[in-house]
Each structure stands twice: as structure tokens, then as C-alpha cells.
Amino acid sequence: MSTRQLNIGIIGAGRIGRVHVETLAFRMPQAKIVAITDINRAAAVEVAARYSIPVVAETSAEIVADAKIDAVLICSSTDTHAELIVQAAGAGQHIFCEKPIALSLSAIDRALAAVQKAGVQLQIGFNRRFDANFARVRQAVATGEIGKPHLMHIVSRDPGPPPVSYTKVSGGMFCDMTIHDFDMARFLIGDEVEEIYVAGGVMVDPAIREAGDLDTALIVLRFRNGVIGTIDNSRKAVYGYDQRVEILGSEGKVETQNRYPNQATVSNGKTVYTDLPLNFFMDRYTESFAAELQSFVGAVLDGRPTEITGIDGRIPVVMAKAARKSYEEHRPVKLTEITE
Fold it and tell me: Are 107 and 131 contacting, i.e. CB atoms less than 8 angstroms apart?
């Protein structure tokens, strides 16, 4: 790896922005945060003070205009991502952007065209690809360890729903939650999905229905190579963050279970039990968040392609739109039907 240090600007000092700042500040000596900004200036000031970031910029435009900054991390709200990518690419800055790029395919395409024209690096924040458990599942498929894959099942359930105010602007469950599972399905099987069918409803909170969204879904995926996949989503699992995968192949199966705060099992005269799984994504995926930034910084410094490209960011949005269309029209939807 290059011995050069990468100067980074952070746009967004919210929950995920803070996760990335901590990783960069304490675990990545080859990267240096030189500036941060947020529409909530007090949040940016607080993060800057805690992690010794020298500059709190008034706006994202200041970050993009700063010639000292080699790369930006876009951790702001979804509706700002595409335009910030265009601006950063125009300034010659490399880009790490949280998912999704945008809720509109035309906005995504404009952002990706700007990246290609500028010749900068872009990585999308699908951190679960860097989780050791899921990487091992992918290895078992890619090497033929379980033979030819036949069936895939992903369980992805949150411990509780987000505020309804969030679902109104996030694009809905398929865009803010299932989008990770859509990316994981492509990653694990190593092929593209042709068709999606959804059965879903509102079983957790009636206010979610009033906001035009759903909170419970079973999604069937048909891949080009014949594999049939299912994704099991719920906004509320009272026992914690439920993240599991199983793939059945012609020569066996591979599966990964939930992660727990410890591996202790308590047995007594009435029951045998363990503690609940890790409660949410910041605990469950701590190491994968660090690994994805290591990958991004390494790619920029070494001049090699990023592991999760702009096209990898576009396809799950197409899948999310197909899922929504299937839910609304009560029929299987081919991804080729989605054009906007």
C-alpha cells in the first residue's frame, strides 16, 4: 500500500457519520479527517471536538471546494447523495457514499456519469459484504464447496421500526432496509436477479401504513442462473437484531447465525438459554464498517478499483423498485420492467 496519507472530508455528522469518523480517527493512520460539516452545525462541532477534526465547514460546498481534500465520505440524507457525488467528482475528489445513491434511476445515472467523466473512485456503503460470516458464505459458493447453489434464504429483521418521519423520506422499507439484503443476495450467489415477487403487509405499526409503507415482507427472487432466493424482512423482532443466511447447494449447505455479545449458555432445571443477539447494526457490524473503509482508502491510495462500485449501488435500487411494484400489483415483476 502507498505510504501517502489520504485527506478526507466528512459530509454528515449523524449516526453513520460518527461510526465512520471513529473508524478513521482511531483505526486508520493512513487516513486523516481534515474537515466535517452537517446541516446541524452543533452536531458537526461536537464530533469535531471529540475526534480532533481541525475544520468545521459551514456547508458541503466548502468541503468540495477544499483543494486539500482527496476524498469525501457522504453520510448525509439520501436526497443529497446524488448531487454531492456530482459535485465531488467535478472537484476531482474520490467518493465513499452511503446507500442508496438516490431514489431515482435518472439521478443515479447522472451521478455515475459524473464519476466516470472525472475518473475518480466511487464506493457505495454496502458494509455487509465485509462481514466475516457473510464473506465465508460467499467463499463456500464461489469455490464450489457446497456444489451448485439451489436455494438461498436471508433473514433480516430489525429490533424495532424507525420513526415514521424517517420512513416518509427514506424511500420506504425496500429502499432503506431491504436494499442491504438485495445487495447481499447478488453478492452471495454471484449472479443477477431477473424477477421479484413480494407478499407483504403492516403488522408492526399502523402508522407505517398511513405513511404509505409496509413493515413485514417475504420476497422471492429468481436469479438468471436458476437459483431461487427468499428474503424474510420485519421491522420488529423483539429479541434483537436478526441477521441470518442459509444457502443450499447440490453438495451441501452453508449457513451463518446471529452474533451474540458472548457465547455463554446457561442451563438450569427449567431451561437452557443464551443472552439475546447483538441489538442493532452498529454493534452487529462494527468490524465490517471498519473493513469497508479500509478497502476504500486502500483502493484510492493504491489506484485500484473499489470493491463495491456505482453499478453495485444502482442495481439494488432497481430491485427495490421492482419489489414495490410487485407488492402494489400483486404479481412477479421482472427487473427489465423498471426504467425510472
Answer: no
Could you give the CA distance from residue 228 to residue 335 in angstroms, rounded to a whole number?
15
Q: Rounded distance, CA 185 to CA 171, Å?
A: 20
Residue 307 has pLDDT above 70, yes or no: yes
Q: Which residue has the cell 416518509?
A: 168
Residue 20, pLDDT above cutoff 80: yes
Nearby residues of 324 by Cβ (< 8 Å), 6 or more positions away: 172, 174, 198
Q: Cβ distance 312 to 140 under 8 Å?
A: no
Strands in 98-234 per DSSP E? 122-124, 149-157, 193-201, 216-223, 228-234
What gap in Å lies between CA 88 and CA 169, rounded to an integer? 24
DSSP letter for 276, please: P
What is the overall mean pLDDT for the chain? 96
- Hey, which residues does 220 pair with through a beta bridge? 197, 230
72-85: pLDDT as tens digits = 999 999 999 999 99
Report d(CA 208, CA 116) in Å as an integer: 38
Biggest distance spanned by C-alpha atoms of the chain: 68
pTM higher than 0.85, yes or no? Answer: yes
